[in-house]
Design brief:
271 residues; 78% helix; disordered C terminus
């Protein structure tokens, strides 16, 4: 009896959670894709006058593709910088100094303790006199995004290292004659592919959705463009925002499927 109640409770929770996310998305879709006045949107008009004209109008804006290109470049640079900053210390702590893991985990959470506006103001005050060109460039967003993504990236890498039992793999590789650096390059990194992809996917999703830093530094990225576009064309802007949301969800689902195919916990000794 208790087991049945537990299963029923889980299903009820999942259904309520699904409705919590589905109902707002449905309201967005009706506002964006139904050519019906908002005051007339109701159950009786649910199937009336659906059209993708608003989305086509939004996609025809050249500024959209320019902002999308900027965000894509920032995403690539942020992923590269984040992995360069985190992969070496995470591997070192896991293999050589596991006692430092709580300290590294806590350090990656520090950026979330500082509000974005305080972080931007502090960095701007420091670099405005020393390197004014840094803040003027769109690339100045990359360090902010990389720091903001640390909690996601670190936990994806840490979970991957624990899943493959990295310390045992390195010890096995060195016992077979490999150097520590060779063991990391030829054994750990190939087995960390799934975690690296997951970390990159999470970081990319953060960059494509982050608004605060770009707005405070007056940079035109995809999120800031969406906000500005919605102010002038509400219906088309809502359609575009919903399309971006769906595409991001599909991309993350594709990453999850890729990870399942590769097998997160599969390990090989590539000596």
């Amino acid at each position: 009896m208790t087991g049945r109640l537990g299963r029923s409770g889980r299903w009820v929770f999942l259904v309520l959670l699904g409705l919590y996310f589905l109902v707002p998305q449905l309201a967005m879709a009706r506002f964006a894709f139904q050519n019906v006045p908002v005051v007339l949107l109701g159950p009786d008009t649910f199937f009336s006058k659906w059209s993708f004209d608003a989305l086509g109008q939004a996609l025809a804006e050249p500024a959209l593709w320019q902002a999308t290109g900027v965000s894509a470049v920032l995403a690539v640079l942020t992923v590269a910088l984040t992995l360069v900053l985190l992969v070496p210390p995470t591997i070192y702590v896991e293999v050589r100094a596991p006692r430092l893991r709580p300290w590294l985990s806590a350090a990656t959470l520090v950026p979330w303790v500082i509000p974005p506006i305080a972080l931007v103001v502090g960095v701007a005050a420091t670099f405005r006199a020393v390197a004014p060109g840094f803040l003027a460039s769109t690339a100045s967003l990359v360090p902010f995004y990389a720091v903001w993504a640390l909690p996601f990236t670190y936990r994806a890498l840490d979970a991957g290292l624990r899943a493959i039992n990295a310390r045992t793999l390195v010890e096995a590789a060195t016992s077979l004659g490999s150097s520590t650096a060779g063991a990391v390059v030829r054994v750990l990194l190939p087995n960390l592919t799934a975690s690296l992809v997951a970390a990159g996917g999470l970081t990319t999703a953060l960059v494509l959705g982050e608004f605060a830093f770009a707005s405070l530094l007056l940079k035109q990225t995809l999120p800031t463009y969406l906000v500005d576009f919605q102010r002038s064309q509400a219906r088309a802007g809502m359609a575009l925002a919903l399309a971006v949301m769906v595409l991001t969800a599909l991309a993350l689902a594709a990453v999850v499927r890729l990870l399942r195919r590769r097998g997160l916990g599969t390990t090989t000794l590539g000596l």
